[in-house]
Amino acid sequence: MALATMDTADLRIALFSGNYNYVRDGANQALNRLAEYLLRQGAKVRVYAPVVPQPAFEPTGDLIGVHSMPIPSRSEYRIPLSILGKARKDLKAFAPNIVHVSSPDPVGHQAVTWARKRDLPVLASVHTRFETYLRYYNMAWGEPVVEAILRRFYRRCDALVAPSESMAQLLREQRMNYDVSIWSRGVDREIFHPGRRDLDWRRAHGIADDEVAIGFLGRLVMEKGLDVFSDTLDELRRRNVKYKVLVIGEGPAREWFEARLPGAAFVGFQQGADLGRAVACMDLLFNPSVTETFGNVTLEAMACGLPVVAAAATGSQSLVDDRVSGRLLPPGAIHQFAEALKSYIEDPALRLAHGRAGEDRAAEFSWDKINQAVADTYIRLIRQKPGTRA
Question: Can you give the residue ranges of the Glycosyltransferase subfamily 4-like N-terminal domain (predicted)?
Fold first, then answer.
């Protein structure tokens, strides 16, 4: 087929992921949605990632296992080590016309090398700010080293996709690559909308109708800003502000978080309609994390008509309009976060107005349109490689 007439159905994508389905997070859910869309359009997709006996959810598409090992300090995650045996044979037989890498791990590096030897285009999707993780383990001094490693990886790729313009601009400033386009994130409006609010469910979790629930949504790990969240609520208590806390999510730091938030309602992992109900039962979302590249939780809260108080970082800057649909404040600014939360708690009209503005903004995010942008990027990269098979 002539490259000029190529469309989505002509794509054969080899997708490499460090975590496609064994632990649920926003990144791998986005990858599974992408695979579902591509398959629905007639494309061929093969996924190469670690497999475990009991994954968090069933994978979308054909998943081929790669050699991996648990991360010593975080055993729920695995490091993909190499493409060996069955995986390498399968990759050769599949004969992709583009390679998509979603994690700068050893298998990701090997996949890039494999593609470059065959003059195949490589697209890398950026899902998290790996360099910022060191801050939460008292190793911030190592950020420049990690940035240099990431830069070497991403510069070997033909292009990058990032979830937001703010993240894309950061990648350009860090000189990771200069061909950076947007693969945003969508929100399922069947699941996330204000009508999911359930007062009986709130009451069952100890939140009265007239109480304001500050929400946390995400995996319970320190790099999500759990320390900033709890320190900010300590500041609210010192100011004698009345509130309740609703925490949605699971993770290895749950015990620590529960000890820091006595009296909070921890409802664990939620999904589907149950997740939509839990989010809508908040009154506002507090998202202090700086590690996200997009901020799925921020968008989901906005779709439920909630104002969002967030760190002015890549995860929320492209979503929240400061003083219109929420507040964007300097990362770690405990006193400013507390003041913003206090304003929403004490002013129901402000909560309502900013929540409605956020809901209007969330209506702009359609999954099919967003995922087609990735397919269009695949096709553009293939056309730019004269030797690539259509």
Answer: 25-190
Neighbours of 72 (CB within 10 A): 7
35/131 Cα distance (integer angstroms): 27
Residues 235-247: what's their mean pLDDT? Answer: 97
Separation CA 211–CA 283 (nearest Å): 9
Closest CA to 68 of 84, 54, 88: 84
pLDDT for res 293:
61
Walk me through the domains of the chain, giving residue ranges and CATH numbers.
Answer: 3-186+367-383 (3.40.50.2000), 194-362 (3.40.50.2000)
The residue-averaged pLDDT of 24-32 equals 90
CA of 106: how far to CAs of 67, 81, 153, 201, 305, in Å? 10, 5, 10, 45, 41
Separation between Cα atoms, residue 17 and residue 127, nearest integer Å: 11
pTM: predicted TM-score of the whole model, two decimal places: 0.72
Token code pair at residue 159: 């292009």
β-sheet with 308-311: strand ranges across? 265-266, 244-248, 213-217, 284-287, 308-311, 326-329
DSSP reduced 3-state for 32: helix
Q: Which amino acid is at 347?
A: D
Tens digit of each residue's pLDDT (9 = 90 or more) over 118-132: 999 999 999 875 545
Summarize pLDDT for 266-282 with one digit per residue, the tens. 999 999 999 999 999 99
281: buried, middle or exposed (CB in 10 Å: 19+, 13-18, 0-12)?
buried
Instruction: Classify strands 67-71 and 74-82 as parallel, antiparallel or unpaired.
Output: antiparallel
| Cβ within 8 Å of residue 266, ≥6 positions away | 247, 254, 257, 258
Q: Which helix (H) or strand (E) holds 150?
A: helix 143-155
In order of 22, 270, 303, the CA distances from 58 in angstroms are 9, 16, 26
Amino acid identity, position 149: I
Dist CA 142 CA 153 (whole Å)? 17
Give mean pLDDT, residues 176-183: 92
Measure the CA–CA gap between 299 and 296, rounded to whole angstroms: 5
Beta-strand pair 122-125/98-101: parallel
The C-alpha atoms of residue 69 and residue 58 are separated, in whole angstroms, by 20
| Residue 3 pLDDT | 59
Q: What is the dihedral of CA 39, 43, 46, 51, to 10 degrees?
A: -10
